[in-house]
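Researcher: Sit down with what I've pasted below and flag anything odd:
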Amino acid sequence: MKIIVDAFGGDNAPLEIIKGAMLAVDEYLLNIVLVGNREEIEQCVRQNNITLKRTEIVDAQSVITMHDDAKSVMKSKADSSMAKGFALLNAGKGDAFVSAGNTGAVTVGATLITKRIKGIKRPAIATIMPSAKKPILLIDCGANSECRPEFLYQFGSMGDLYMRHILKYENPRVALANNGEESTKGTPLIREAYALMKDAPYNFIGNIEGRQIPFGDADVIVSDGFTGNIILKTYEGVAKVLMNGIKDVFMKSTLTKLSYLGVKKGIDDMKKQFDYKEYGGAVLLGVKKPVIKAHGSSDAKTFKNAIKQAVWFLENNFIEKIEKSLKEVTQ
Protein backbone atom coordinates (compact mmCIF):
# COMPACT_ATOMS: atom_id res chain seq x y z
CA MET A 1 0.00 0.00 0.00
CA LYS A 2 1.50 3.33 -1.08
CA ILE A 3 0.09 6.69 0.05
CA ILE A 4 0.98 9.93 -1.75
CA VAL A 5 1.28 12.86 0.66
CA ASP A 6 1.23 16.59 -0.12
CA ALA A 7 4.11 17.55 2.18
CA PHE A 8 3.39 21.28 1.89
CA GLY A 9 -0.37 21.39 2.34
CA GLY A 10 -1.73 22.94 5.54
CA ASP A 11 -0.73 25.39 8.25
CA ASN A 12 1.88 23.17 9.89
CA ALA A 13 3.66 21.83 6.81
CA PRO A 14 6.07 20.29 6.27
CA LEU A 15 7.08 19.27 9.82
CA GLU A 16 3.75 17.97 11.16
CA ILE A 17 2.89 16.38 7.82
CA ILE A 18 6.17 14.44 7.76
CA LYS A 19 5.83 13.41 11.40
CA GLY A 20 2.24 12.27 10.80
CA ALA A 21 3.28 10.28 7.74
CA MET A 22 5.99 8.50 9.75
CA LEU A 23 3.47 7.67 12.49
CA ALA A 24 1.27 6.12 9.78
CA VAL A 25 4.22 4.10 8.43
CA ASP A 26 4.81 2.66 11.90
CA GLU A 27 1.13 1.90 12.57
CA TYR A 28 -0.07 0.67 9.18
CA LEU A 29 3.19 -0.64 7.62
CA LEU A 30 2.64 1.28 4.40
CA ASN A 31 4.87 3.20 1.98
CA ILE A 32 4.85 6.97 1.64
CA VAL A 33 5.56 9.32 -1.26
CA LEU A 34 6.29 12.83 0.05
CA VAL A 35 5.67 15.45 -2.62
CA GLY A 36 7.26 18.87 -2.15
CA ASN A 37 10.47 20.86 -2.22
CA ARG A 38 13.12 18.19 -1.75
CA GLU A 39 15.68 20.53 -0.20
CA GLU A 40 13.21 21.85 2.39
CA ILE A 41 11.97 18.36 3.24
CA GLU A 42 15.51 17.05 3.76
CA GLN A 43 16.43 20.12 5.84
CA CYS A 44 13.30 19.67 8.00
CA VAL A 45 14.12 16.00 8.53
CA ARG A 46 17.70 16.79 9.59
CA GLN A 47 16.78 19.66 11.92
CA ASN A 48 14.13 17.60 13.73
CA ASN A 49 16.02 14.28 13.85
CA ILE A 50 13.33 12.47 11.87
CA THR A 51 14.17 9.12 10.30
CA LEU A 52 12.35 8.62 7.01
CA LYS A 53 11.16 5.04 6.72
CA ARG A 54 9.69 3.41 3.61
CA THR A 55 9.53 6.88 2.06
CA GLU A 56 10.48 8.42 -1.26
CA ILE A 57 10.53 12.13 -2.08
CA VAL A 58 9.19 13.61 -5.31
CA ASP A 59 10.38 17.18 -5.85
CA ALA A 60 7.85 19.99 -6.41
CA GLN A 61 8.93 23.61 -6.44
CA SER A 62 5.73 25.53 -5.64
CA VAL A 63 2.92 25.40 -3.10
CA ILE A 64 -0.80 26.09 -3.41
CA THR A 65 -1.70 28.34 -0.48
CA MET A 66 -5.09 28.76 1.19
CA HIS A 67 -5.46 32.07 -0.68
CA ASP A 68 -4.83 30.68 -4.16
CA ASP A 69 -7.63 30.20 -6.64
CA ALA A 70 -8.89 26.60 -6.65
CA LYS A 71 -8.14 26.24 -10.37
CA SER A 72 -4.46 27.03 -9.80
CA VAL A 73 -3.94 23.28 -9.31
CA MET A 74 -4.68 22.90 -13.03
CA LYS A 75 -3.06 26.05 -14.40
CA SER A 76 -0.73 28.53 -12.71
CA LYS A 77 0.60 26.04 -10.13
CA ALA A 78 0.66 22.80 -12.06
CA ASP A 79 4.18 22.27 -10.64
CA SER A 80 2.94 22.48 -7.02
CA SER A 81 3.13 19.70 -4.45
CA MET A 82 -0.64 19.21 -4.68
CA ALA A 83 -0.81 19.11 -8.47
CA LYS A 84 2.11 16.71 -8.71
CA GLY A 85 0.50 14.55 -6.04
CA PHE A 86 -2.65 14.25 -8.11
CA ALA A 87 -0.58 13.53 -11.24
CA LEU A 88 1.23 10.70 -9.43
CA LEU A 89 -2.10 9.27 -8.24
CA ASN A 90 -3.52 9.47 -11.75
CA ALA A 91 -0.45 7.72 -13.16
CA GLY A 92 -0.78 4.83 -10.71
CA LYS A 93 2.36 5.77 -8.75
CA GLY A 94 0.41 5.51 -5.50
CA ASP A 95 -2.88 4.11 -4.19
CA ALA A 96 -4.31 7.20 -2.47
CA PHE A 97 -3.59 10.91 -2.02
CA VAL A 98 -3.75 12.91 1.22
CA SER A 99 -3.47 16.70 1.49
CA ALA A 100 -4.15 19.27 4.21
CA GLY A 101 -4.08 22.04 1.61
CA ASN A 102 -6.61 24.36 -0.02
CA THR A 103 -10.03 22.60 0.01
CA GLY A 104 -11.17 24.13 -3.28
CA ALA A 105 -7.96 23.09 -5.03
CA VAL A 106 -8.22 19.54 -3.63
CA THR A 107 -11.79 19.34 -4.94
CA VAL A 108 -10.80 20.65 -8.39
CA GLY A 109 -7.82 18.30 -8.57
CA ALA A 110 -9.89 15.30 -7.51
CA THR A 111 -12.61 16.13 -10.03
CA LEU A 112 -10.54 17.15 -13.05
CA ILE A 113 -7.30 15.20 -12.61
CA THR A 114 -8.36 12.05 -10.75
CA LYS A 115 -11.84 12.38 -12.31
CA ARG A 116 -15.28 11.18 -11.26
CA ILE A 117 -16.46 7.59 -11.09
CA LYS A 118 -18.66 6.97 -14.14
CA GLY A 119 -22.25 7.74 -13.18
CA ILE A 120 -21.40 10.08 -10.29
CA LYS A 121 -22.81 13.52 -11.03
CA ARG A 122 -20.73 15.44 -8.46
CA PRO A 123 -18.07 14.28 -5.98
CA ALA A 124 -18.78 15.34 -2.41
CA ILE A 125 -16.72 16.00 0.72
CA ALA A 126 -17.80 13.69 3.53
CA THR A 127 -16.72 14.22 7.13
CA ILE A 128 -17.11 11.90 10.11
CA MET A 129 -18.41 13.84 13.12
CA PRO A 130 -19.07 12.84 16.73
CA SER A 131 -22.55 12.65 18.23
CA ALA A 132 -23.98 11.76 21.63
CA LYS A 133 -24.45 8.17 20.43
CA LYS A 134 -21.84 7.24 17.83
CA PRO A 135 -20.00 8.79 14.85
CA ILE A 136 -22.10 10.23 12.05
CA LEU A 137 -21.29 11.33 8.49
CA LEU A 138 -21.97 14.78 7.02
CA ILE A 139 -22.02 15.00 3.20
CA ASP A 140 -21.42 17.45 1.41
CA CYS A 141 -19.14 19.72 3.48
CA GLY A 142 -17.90 22.14 0.86
CA ALA A 143 -17.35 20.67 -2.59
CA ASN A 144 -20.66 21.82 -4.12
CA SER A 145 -22.10 25.14 -2.94
CA GLU A 146 -24.88 24.89 -5.52
CA CYS A 147 -26.65 21.59 -6.00
CA ARG A 148 -29.51 19.95 -7.85
CA PRO A 149 -31.91 17.49 -6.18
CA GLU A 150 -30.32 14.50 -7.90
CA PHE A 151 -26.94 15.46 -6.43
CA LEU A 152 -28.33 15.26 -2.91
CA TYR A 153 -30.00 11.95 -3.73
CA GLN A 154 -26.63 10.56 -4.81
CA PHE A 155 -24.83 12.03 -1.78
CA GLY A 156 -27.23 9.99 0.33
CA SER A 157 -26.32 6.85 -1.59
CA MET A 158 -22.56 7.40 -1.21
CA GLY A 159 -22.96 8.25 2.47
CA ASP A 160 -24.97 5.09 3.03
CA LEU A 161 -22.28 2.99 1.34
CA TYR A 162 -19.53 4.64 3.37
CA MET A 163 -21.20 3.98 6.69
CA ARG A 164 -22.04 0.38 5.79
CA HIS A 165 -18.68 -0.62 4.36
CA ILE A 166 -16.21 1.61 6.22
CA LEU A 167 -17.77 2.07 9.67
CA LYS A 168 -19.78 -1.19 9.41
CA TYR A 169 -23.22 0.27 10.26
CA GLU A 170 -25.87 -2.32 9.48
CA ASN A 171 -28.66 -0.09 8.13
CA PRO A 172 -27.55 3.55 8.36
CA ARG A 173 -30.28 6.16 8.72
CA VAL A 174 -29.98 8.84 6.04
CA ALA A 175 -31.53 12.27 6.68
CA LEU A 176 -31.72 15.57 4.82
CA ALA A 177 -30.58 18.70 6.67
CA ASN A 178 -33.48 21.14 6.80
CA ASN A 179 -35.11 23.85 8.92
CA GLY A 180 -37.99 21.54 9.86
CA GLU A 181 -38.95 17.87 9.86
CA GLU A 182 -42.00 18.26 7.60
CA SER A 183 -41.61 17.35 3.93
CA THR A 184 -43.15 20.70 2.96
CA LYS A 185 -40.40 22.70 4.73
CA GLY A 186 -37.24 24.11 3.18
CA THR A 187 -36.08 25.58 -0.11
CA PRO A 188 -37.28 24.23 -3.47
CA LEU A 189 -34.00 22.28 -3.69
CA ILE A 190 -34.62 20.52 -0.37
CA ARG A 191 -38.28 19.79 -1.11
CA GLU A 192 -37.43 18.30 -4.51
CA ALA A 193 -34.56 16.27 -3.03
CA TYR A 194 -36.92 14.95 -0.35
CA ALA A 195 -39.33 13.76 -3.06
CA LEU A 196 -36.51 11.81 -4.72
CA MET A 197 -34.97 10.44 -1.53
CA LYS A 198 -38.20 9.10 -0.03
CA ASP A 199 -38.18 6.39 -2.70
CA ALA A 200 -34.44 5.70 -2.47
CA PRO A 201 -33.10 2.15 -1.92
CA TYR A 202 -31.27 3.35 1.18
CA ASN A 203 -32.82 3.99 4.60
CA PHE A 204 -34.05 7.58 4.19
CA ILE A 205 -35.74 8.75 7.40
CA GLY A 206 -36.74 12.27 6.27
CA ASN A 207 -35.58 15.73 7.29
CA ILE A 208 -33.41 16.53 10.29
CA GLU A 209 -33.08 19.87 12.06
CA GLY A 210 -29.72 21.24 13.14
CA ARG A 211 -30.41 20.72 16.84
CA GLN A 212 -31.03 16.99 16.28
CA ILE A 213 -27.70 16.35 14.57
CA PRO A 214 -25.49 16.28 17.72
CA PHE A 215 -27.85 13.76 19.34
CA GLY A 216 -27.15 11.24 16.57
CA ASP A 217 -30.74 11.06 15.36
CA ALA A 218 -29.40 10.09 11.90
CA ASP A 219 -26.23 8.34 10.76
CA VAL A 220 -25.80 10.22 7.46
CA ILE A 221 -26.65 13.92 7.15
CA VAL A 222 -27.09 15.10 3.55
CA SER A 223 -26.80 18.75 2.55
CA ASP A 224 -25.46 21.03 -0.15
CA GLY A 225 -21.82 22.00 0.35
CA PHE A 226 -22.56 25.55 1.51
CA THR A 227 -24.93 24.45 4.28
CA GLY A 228 -22.79 21.46 5.21
CA ASN A 229 -19.67 23.58 5.64
CA ILE A 230 -21.52 25.93 7.99
CA ILE A 231 -22.84 22.96 10.00
CA LEU A 232 -19.33 21.48 10.24
CA LYS A 233 -17.57 24.70 11.28
CA THR A 234 -20.29 25.58 13.80
CA TYR A 235 -20.12 22.05 15.22
CA GLU A 236 -16.35 22.27 15.68
CA GLY A 237 -16.57 25.76 17.21
CA VAL A 238 -19.26 24.87 19.73
CA ALA A 239 -17.37 21.73 20.78
CA LYS A 240 -14.25 23.79 21.39
CA VAL A 241 -16.14 26.42 23.40
CA LEU A 242 -17.73 23.74 25.59
CA MET A 243 -14.45 21.94 26.27
CA ASN A 244 -12.70 25.22 27.11
CA GLY A 245 -15.63 26.14 29.37
CA ILE A 246 -15.39 22.86 31.27
CA LYS A 247 -11.64 23.39 31.69
CA ASP A 248 -12.21 26.92 33.06
CA VAL A 249 -14.75 25.61 35.61
CA PHE A 250 -12.24 23.17 37.06
CA MET A 251 -9.42 25.71 37.11
CA LYS A 252 -11.27 28.20 39.32
CA SER A 253 -9.93 27.11 42.72
CA THR A 254 -8.01 24.45 44.60
CA LEU A 255 -11.28 22.73 45.48
CA THR A 256 -12.45 22.55 41.87
CA LYS A 257 -9.03 21.25 40.80
CA LEU A 258 -9.30 18.47 43.38
CA SER A 259 -12.86 17.75 42.18
CA TYR A 260 -11.51 17.33 38.67
CA LEU A 261 -9.53 14.26 39.74
CA GLY A 262 -12.78 12.43 40.45
CA VAL A 263 -14.22 13.03 36.99
CA LYS A 264 -11.02 13.15 34.92
CA LYS A 265 -11.58 9.85 33.11
CA GLY A 266 -15.13 10.81 32.09
CA ILE A 267 -14.00 14.20 30.82
CA ASP A 268 -11.06 12.66 28.95
CA ASP A 269 -13.43 10.18 27.28
CA MET A 270 -15.79 12.99 26.27
CA LYS A 271 -12.89 15.08 24.96
CA LYS A 272 -11.73 12.18 22.81
CA GLN A 273 -15.28 11.59 21.58
CA PHE A 274 -15.59 15.16 20.30
CA ASP A 275 -12.00 15.57 19.09
CA TYR A 276 -11.83 16.13 15.31
CA LYS A 277 -8.24 14.81 15.38
CA GLU A 278 -9.57 11.27 15.82
CA TYR A 279 -10.60 11.11 12.15
CA GLY A 280 -8.16 13.63 10.69
CA GLY A 281 -10.23 15.13 7.92
CA ALA A 282 -12.70 14.44 5.14
CA VAL A 283 -12.95 12.06 2.22
CA LEU A 284 -13.78 12.96 -1.39
CA LEU A 285 -16.53 10.51 -2.32
CA GLY A 286 -17.27 9.92 -5.98
CA VAL A 287 -13.79 10.09 -7.55
CA LYS A 288 -11.91 7.18 -9.10
CA LYS A 289 -9.21 6.88 -6.45
CA PRO A 290 -9.09 7.64 -2.71
CA VAL A 291 -8.53 11.34 -2.01
CA ILE A 292 -8.46 12.54 1.60
CA LYS A 293 -8.65 16.20 2.62
CA ALA A 294 -6.91 16.49 6.00
CA HIS A 295 -7.66 19.39 8.34
CA GLY A 296 -5.73 22.53 7.39
CA SER A 297 -4.44 22.85 10.96
CA SER A 298 -3.38 19.20 11.16
CA ASP A 299 -0.71 18.23 13.66
CA ALA A 300 1.10 14.88 13.39
CA LYS A 301 -1.66 12.88 15.09
CA THR A 302 -4.41 14.45 12.98
CA PHE A 303 -2.53 13.83 9.75
CA LYS A 304 -1.77 10.24 10.72
CA ASN A 305 -5.50 9.69 11.22
CA ALA A 306 -6.25 11.27 7.82
CA ILE A 307 -3.93 8.66 6.30
CA LYS A 308 -5.87 6.05 8.30
CA GLN A 309 -8.97 6.95 6.28
CA ALA A 310 -7.06 6.26 3.07
CA VAL A 311 -6.09 2.87 4.52
CA TRP A 312 -9.76 2.15 5.29
CA PHE A 313 -10.72 3.01 1.70
CA LEU A 314 -8.13 0.65 0.26
CA GLU A 315 -8.68 -2.22 2.68
CA ASN A 316 -12.42 -2.18 1.95
CA ASN A 317 -12.12 -1.68 -1.84
CA PHE A 318 -14.56 1.18 -1.38
CA ILE A 319 -14.27 2.64 -4.89
CA GLU A 320 -15.36 -0.73 -6.27
CA LYS A 321 -18.31 -0.74 -3.87
CA ILE A 322 -19.55 2.58 -5.31
CA GLU A 323 -19.04 1.38 -8.89
CA LYS A 324 -20.92 -1.84 -8.18
CA SER A 325 -23.79 0.05 -6.53
CA LEU A 326 -24.14 2.33 -9.56
CA LYS A 327 -24.26 -0.63 -11.91
CA GLU A 328 -26.99 -2.28 -9.86
CA VAL A 329 -29.09 0.91 -9.96
CA THR A 330 -28.77 1.27 -13.76
CA GLN A 331 -29.48 -2.39 -14.57
Summary: The radius of gyration is 20 Å.
